[in-house]
Design a protein that fits this description.
The chain has 388 residues and is α+β, with helices and mostly antiparallel strands. Helix content is 16%, strand content 34%. It contains seven helices and 18 strands. The chain has helices at residues 36-47, 102-105, 108-114, 230-235, 237-253, 295-306, 382-387, and strands spanning 4-6, 9-19, 22-28, 67-73, 81-88, 95-96, 124-131, 137-143, 170-175, 193-197, 201-209, 213-218, 266-271, 279-284, 325-330, 333-342, 345-356, 358-369. Mean pLDDT is 91; it is low at 376-388.
Length: 388
C-alpha cells in the first residue's frame, strides 16, 4: 500500500487496530506529514473530528475510539520502535500527544509486524518500544508462531474485562514509568493533599503519576458510593462539575499549569472492593466516565494503593510480597497489575507488568481530502520495511 491521490482524495496506508479496550487507526510515520499541523490535519480528517458522530471519518464517537497511533523504527540501540500516541475527541479539533495510552501501546508491536516495520523473531517476538509522548519505555511480547513469516497470532485464551471473547496475550513490562508527564511520582511532594471543593469544603486527594497523571479521591468524600453505573455518573452534572473544579486545582498543584483544555490529569474515584479485588474505581478521561480503566491509569492507581499514606492505601485490601498482584476493580470487571517493589524502599515501585490483548481489524487506505497535501512515502518492499 502506498500514499497516492485519487481525484480529490488522498489515500494513506492505515491499519485499524484494537489495543486493549481502545481502538483506532495506526500509521507508519513515513506515510504522514512530518510537520505537526499538517499531520494533525490529516488525523482529524481521518477520524472525522470535530463531529459528535464522527460520521465522516473512522472515529467511533467516543474518546476510547478516537485514538490514533504513529509508529516508526528507531535509530537508538536500546529501542526497536518509536510510538507516538494521539488522543482526538469527537467534538473538538484538538490532537493531544502529551500523554500516554497503555491500551493502544498493546497494538504497537502487532502493527509493526503487520506493516513490515518489524520482522518476527521465532515463536515469540519481543520489542522495546519508546513512547515519544513522555519517554516511557516498555518491553512488549507477542506471539508470532510462524517465525520469520509476517504473521501475528491473535487467537488465544487470554481474557481482559471490557473486551468480548478471548485472544492471544500481549505481555507488557513497563520500565521506569514514574513521573511520565509530571516531574516525579508524587508531583506535589506529598502522599496526600487537601483541596477545597466548592460546596463540600476540604477534600483529601492523592496526586500521582506512574505512567499517567491521576488525581485520586475517595468517592465517599464527594458524596458518592463509587459503585454507581457509568451511565449514572455521566449524567451526574453536579459530580462532574466538582470533579472538573478539583482537576483544575490539582493540575496547578501538580505543576501542570492550566489543564482546562488538556486530557490529564485523569480523575479517579476509589471505594472499597466489591468483588474480591484490592479496591474499586470509577475513572474519568477526563470528562467522560470510562467503561473500564486505562492501562496506565490502572498502573498508577495500583501504585498509589501500595504507598502507605495515600487516600487509596486507606481503603485498599492488598496482597503481600515484593511483587504484589494488585486487582483494580472497574465498571466492567477487574485489571490486575503486578508491581515490583524495591526491598530497600517499600514505597518505591521499580517496575510494573500486565497482560493485554490486541487484534488487527482492518488494513487498507484511509481517504482524506487531497488539499491536505501528499506525505512523502517510500516504495513498499518487505526487505526495506524490515530494515528501515
Amino acid at each position: 500500500m502506498n500514499v497516492g491521490t485519487r481525484g480529490s482524495q488522498l489515500a494513506i496506508p492505515c491499519w485499524i487496530m484494537r489495543g486493549g479496550t481502545s481502538k483506532g487507526p495506526f500509521f507508519r510515520a513515513r506515510d504522514l506529514p512530518a510537520e505537526k499541523d499538517a499531520r494533525d490535519a490529516v488525523l482529524l480528517a481521518a477520524m472525522g473530528s470535530p463531529d459528535p458522530r464522527q460520521i465522516d471519518g473512522l472515529g467511533g464517537a467516543h474518546p476510547l475510539t478516537s485514538k490514533a497511533g504513529i509508529v516508526s523504527t528507531s535509530d537508538r540501540d536500546d529501542v526497536d520502535l518509536e510510538f507516538l500516541f494521539a488522543q482526538l475527541q469527537p467534538t473538538s479539533d484538538t490532537v493531544d500527544t502529551t500523554a500516554n495510552c497503555g491500551n493502544m501501546l498493546a497494538a504497537v508491536v502487532p502493527f509493526a509486524v503487520e506493516s513490515g516495520l518489524l520482522a518476527p523473531d521465532g515463536d515469540f517476538t519481543t520489542a522495546r518500544v519508546l513512547t515519544l509522548n513522555t519517554g516511557l519505555v516498555a518491553e512488549v511480547t507477542i506471539q508470532t508462531p510462524l517465525g520469520s513469516e509476517r504473521y501475528v497470532e491473535y487467537s488465544g485464551g487470554a481474557r481482559i474485562d471490557g473486551v468480548p471473547g478471548s485472544a492471544a496475550p500481549v505481555e507488557i513490562n513497563f520500565l521506569d514509568t514514574a513521573g511520565s508527564v509530571c516531574d516525579s511520582l508524587l508531583p506535589t511532594g506529598n502522599l496526600r493533599d487537601t483541596v477545597d471543593v466548592d460546596g463540600l469544603g476540604p477534600v483529601d486527594v492523592t496526586c500521582i503519576d506512574n505512567g499517567m497523571p491521576l488525581v485520586i479521591v475517595q468517592a465517599a468524600a464527594l458524596g458518592r458510593t463509587g459503585q454507581e453505573t457509568v451511565a449514572d455518573l455521566n449524567k451526574d452534572t453536579e459530580l462532574k462539575t466538582r470533579l472538573e473544579d478539583l482537576r483544575i486545582s490539582c493540575g496547578k498543584l501538580m505543576g501542570l499549569g492550566d489543564v482546562t483544555d488538556r486530557n490529564y490529569p485523569k480523575m479517579t474515584l476509589i471505594s472499597a472492593p466489591a468483588s474480591g479485588g484490592a479496591f474499586n474505581t470509577r475513572s474519568f478521561i477526563p470528562h467522560v466516565c470510562h467503561e473500564s480503566i486505562g492501562v496506565l491509569a490502572a498502573v498508577t492507581a495500583a501504585t498509589a494503593a501500595v504507598l502507605d499514606g495515600t487516600v487509596a492505601h486507606d481503603i485498599a485490601e492488598l496482597p503481600t510480597g515484593a511483587q504484589p498482584a494488585v486487582s483494580v476493580e472497574h465498571p466492567s470487571g477487574e485489571f490486575t497489575v503486578r508491581l515490583g517493589l524495591d526491598p530497600a524502599e517499600p514505597n518505591r515501585v521499580m517496575k510494573s507488568a500486565l497482560i493485554r490483548t490486541a487484534r488487527l481489524l482492518m488494513a487498507g487506505n484511509v481517504m482524506v481530502p487531497s488539499r491536505l497535501g501528499t506525505p512523502v512515502s517510500q516504495p513498499s518492499s518487505s526487505s526495506q520495511e524490515h530494515t528501515e
